[in-house]
Amino acid sequence: MLKKLTQTFRDMGTIKTLCEAAEQIANAEHQPAPGAEHFVLAALELPDGSAARVFRKLGISAGAFREALRDVHRAALMAAGVNAEDVAGSERDVPPLPRPSGPYNAAPSGEAVLNGLAALRKRGVTGPLIGAHVLEVVSAMQHGPSAHAFARLGRDAPTVMAAIQSEMAMAA
Amino acid sequence: MLKKLTQTFRDMGTIKTLCEAAEQIANAEHQPAPGAEHFVLAALELPDGSAARVFRKLGISAGAFREALRDVHRAALMAAGVNAEDVAGSERDVPPLPRPSGPYNAAPSGEAVLNGLAALRKRGVTGPLIGAHVLEVVSAMQHGPSAHAFARLGRDAPTVMAAIQSEMAMAA
Amino acid sequence: MNETPDDASETDNPEQAFASVVALRLMADRLERKAVAEALAQGWSWARIAQALGVSKQAAHKRLSSVTPTIKT
Amino acid sequence: MNETPDDASETDNPEQAFASVVALRLMADRLERKAVAEALAQGWSWARIAQALGVSKQAAHKRLSSVTPTIKT
């Protein structure tokens, strides 16, 4: 019981770090609430280092993933018929969002990440919450910016999942 | 008292006709809630004929105003960098909105029209509610699609207001 | 006292910029209904549609459940 | 089992179409904040900003009141 409680407390600290980082990353992209892709970038910064190791296994960097997310956004605008100049212009000199206040608010895909992390425990995953868990939950999402960014970087879902499983096996 | 009540009842019928027409017109443009511009188009169909007479004085038709609204939308997209082909494509084969149900719901600019009509009574305007009143309220709005559509048709706000006042004087 | 919407560069003309914002949102709403019709025709579930739109399944269903699948001709 | 987003025409590819919808909305949000900053710099009231955006003054203020006027350089 004490062990479970300690576990929960340790996870709470990790979750808090993760959520706050995801929010900051989303805000920097002018999105008020973090989505799954911002949780991926936040997971890469967690001190346990497991998400960063998965990315190294995949041969991609956090910066490349971040840039791929931007490219996905730009490509989606251009597919809708917006010319490149106006796409670029829309990203320049955007007034920053206010510092978050009030209750924590994730975008629906971000909420899905948090629910997915809670579900890992129910599926019997033990040990502390680590960044690779976040990648595991997000890589199971078929749609959304993260799937597009991985695809854009030439890493399909099975490849990403294999790298995550390999890291998990090493950690266990 | 009876007269005032009759007046209110008669207005209620006009308001109902106006609101339902505005909603249908908005829905046909794939907008769930009618804005001020849809109330203008609805006013032109009211049986009192006053709004239609204002448009004749201005030398414009309901069809021309409707087309000007579409042109305003298209020009705004093109100003944002969307190419003409994708602008046109976005209007084709859009699945229709469902038949409205539940409480009546106007867009904020449509609500402003309804509030403006109520305010006319407070300002001492008597007689039945007529289509020209709708034009009067909307033409006082500096911004929004209606102002842009009138400008696009080469009718500036003072010109529109003068035509409305002239119709009002004839009706009084 | 209306300003004409087309008389200045986009960045300096809030009138034009606001009109573009409104128009982009309407365009997005229309494309969304078209995409849902096509997705349903291809057998997508509402859970997939919601995930692709980054909204909750409830929100997607509430806003878009009136859309029927595109009929292929 | 992800489909690649760019492998079919826009109309037949819901994946791409949904991504465009999401991107257009984000673009609109960004342009909106830029336009508000410029409008405030030009002395627009919140009532005018709300009218130009077709939203209520309360909604405009709630969503956008953190924007400060563009500083002219």
Question: Topology, pairings included?
Answer:
The complex is a heterotetramer, with two copies of chain A (172 residues) and two copies of chain C (73 residues).
Chain A: H1 2-28, H2 36-43, H3 50-58, H4 62-79, H5 84-91, H6 108-122, H7 131-139, H8 145-152, H9 157-171
Chain C: H1 14-41, H2 46-53, H3 57-64
Helix pairs in contact in C: 2-3
Share in helix of chain C:
55-70%
Structural class of chain A: mainly alpha
The biggest beta sheet of chain C reads: none
Q: What letter string, H or E per element, gives the SSE order of chain A?
A: HHHHHHHHH
The coarse overall form of chain C would be: elongated
Distance between the termini of chain C: 51 Å
Q: Into which percentage range does the β-strand content of chain C fall? A: under 5%
The most extensive interface between chains reads: A-D, 28 and 27 residues
Shape of chain A: globular
- Annotation field: number of helices of chain C: 3
Would you count the extended β strands of chain A for me? Answer: 0
Question: What would your notes on this structure say?
Answer:
The complex is a heterotetramer, with two copies of chain A (172 residues) and two copies of chain C (73 residues). Chain A has 172 residues and is mainly α. Chain A has one domain: Clp, N-terminal domain (Double Clp-N motif, Orthogonal Bundle). Helices cover 68% and strands 0% of the residues of chain A. Chain A contains nine helices and no strands. Chain A has helices at residues 2-28, 36-43, 50-58, 62-79, 84-91, 108-122, 131-139, 145-152, 157-171. The radius of gyration of chain A is 17 Å and the shape is globular. The relative contact order of chain A is 0.17. The model of chain A has no long low-confidence stretch (mean pLDDT 94). Chain C has 73 residues and is mainly α. Chain C has three helices and no strands. In chain C, helix 2 (46-53) crosses helix 3 (57-64). Chain C is elongated, with a radius of gyration of 17 Å. Chain C starts with 13 loop residues before the first helix and ends in a 9-residue tail after the last helix. Mean pLDDT of chain C is 87; it is low at 1-10. Chain A binds chain D through residues 30-31, 72-77, 79-80, 82, 87, 90-91, 93-98, 142-143, 145, 147-148, 151, 156-157, and chain D through 1-2, 4-6, 10, 15-16, 18-20, 22-24, 26-27, 29-31, 33-34, 36-37, 66-68, 70.
